[in-house]
Design a protein that fits this description.
amino-acid biosynthesis, alpha/beta, 44% helix, 6-stranded parallel beta sheet, Rossmann fold, 5-stranded parallel beta sheet
């Protein structure tokens, strides 16, 4: 890994999946075809891009049964326990509707209502991501969404990976379609003969999925356009080089564009971690991906002090932040920008990715400066509630009318004054 002093450039920001002009035109064409021709277009694109011809897109009960036969029972139990942890954590995010009353009869409030329907995109094809199912579906369930639709591209066998189906069953998804890519996003947004449209789409995907989500936004809602995964580790001289290196590589193996960064005031730790990364890379199954990631986006920043290190962390605003210091709680209050914060050596990033209960759908590319992890409120909407009594309006009618006339809106003024003629 490259070791730099902080006087040099400090950045892990890469462009969020913007795509090429050719890719954007391709996605727009796919979306338009699905809008016009529905199932027929989805079927053609699925055959073209996923090598699967499917007359019916929905997952059958037989496929669910087969999935549970393939996945070992102890692994099913692990998925169930992870689901319980995620459910418990997100239950604490629930907020009730509320109302307040005043002596003059005014009632003001906020009504919280779950979305009617949500689509969950789960990446697939050559890989399986059961954790993505749990992280996207369970908050929607907790929020009270009645209709949750899952889509995932089929593999060469025309099926969704067994682990993904098991996670979907555990999470309580009843409507699942074996479609992926931009055509799946279009189907969710505008509907086809087999797929009824939804109000929002969440979940990660490749560049074509990201571009499709950007295109349909406004007709429906989306969660975010995520960039490659990233981790920043804030560490002092007490951190163990082998553990720091392992955590850096846990992100590097995600993607060649993933970013792994160590920020530390300890030159000794920096050099030891750099050597340890080299050593651990040798035996890593996804060595080619991790090595490319470390080469292009891996860096160790050595600072003059811990205060300077914290300043760098806040500038980077990472997706994942680990604090591996003698007393990690000491620095928590100084962290302003991070998607998820992992405190101490026993809180390695995969703990949150899979099992602790926090959500692993996190803001990337510095967007933690203004956005948050996927949560229950992402699946709800809020309505303002206003009730004015005759007494309350009479007390304030002249003020409201005056404000309306200040903006040149005479009809607004007359609308309140008309009540007292």
């Amino acid at each position: 890994m490259k070791i730099k002093r902080v006087s040099e450039s400090v950045s892990i920001k890469r462009s969020i999946e913007s795509g090429t002009q050719e890719q954007l035109l391709q996605v727009k064409a796919i979306i338009e075809e699905v809008r016009i021709r529905g199932d027929e277009a989805v079927r053609e694109f699925t055959e073209k891009y996923d090598d699967s011809y499917l007359e019916l897109f929905s997952v059958t009960q037989t496929e669910f049964d087969e999935a549970f036969e393939v996945i070992e029972e102890n692994m099913v139990d692990v998925i169930k326990e992870a689901a319980e942890n995620i459910h418990s954590y997100h239950m604490k995010q629930l907020r009730p509707s509320w109302m307040t009353t005043e002596e003059n009869g005014t009632i003001l409030g906020q009504k919280i209502t779950p979305l009617d329907s949500v689509g969950v995109y789960v990446p697939g094809g050559t890989a399986a991501y059961p954790s993505s199912v749990l992280m996207n579906v369970i908050p929607a369930k907790v929020a009270g969404v009645e209709r949750i639709v899952m889509v995932s591209p089929p593999g060469e066998n025309g099926k969704i990976p067994p682990a993904v189906l098991v996670a979907a069953k555990v999470a309580g998804v009843k409507e699942i379609y074996k479609i992926g890519g931009a055509q799946a996003i279009a189907a969710l947004a505008y509907g086809t003969e087999q797929v009824r449209p939804v109000d929002k789409v969440v979940g990660p995907g490749n560049i074509y999925v990201a571009l499709a989500k950007k295109e349909v936004f406004g007709d429906i809602d989306i969660d975010m356009i995520a960039g490659p995964s990233e981790i920043v580790i804030l560490a002092d001289q007490t951190a163990r080089p082998n553990e720091v290196a392992a955590d850096l590589l846990s992100q590097a193996e995600h993607d060649e564009r993933a970013s792994s960064v160590l920020v530390t005031p300890s030159q000794e730790l920096a050099e030891a971690v750099a050597e340890e990364v080299k050593r651990q890379l040798i035996e890593l199954p996804r060595k080619k991906i991790a090595e490319k990631s470390i080469q292009d986006y891996g860096v160790i920043y050595v600072t003059e002090s811990m205060d300077e290190a914290i300043s760098i962390v806040n500038e980077l605003a990472p997706e994942h932040l680990e604090i591996l210091t003698e007393n990690p709680m000491e620095y928590l209050g100084q962290i302003k920008h991070a998607g998820a914060i992992f405190l101490g050596r026993f809180s390695s990033e995969p703990v949150g990715d899979y099992f602790a209960g926090t959500n692993h759908v996190l803001p990337t590319n510095g967007t933690a400066r203004f956005s948050s992890p996927l949560n229950v409120e992402d699946f709800q909407k809020k309505s303002s509630v206003i009730y004015y009594s005759e007494k309350a309006l009479n007390q304030n009618v002249h003020k409201i009318a005056a404000f309306a006339r200040l903006e040149g809106l005479e009809a607004h003024a007359r609308a309140v004054e008309e009540r007292f003629k």
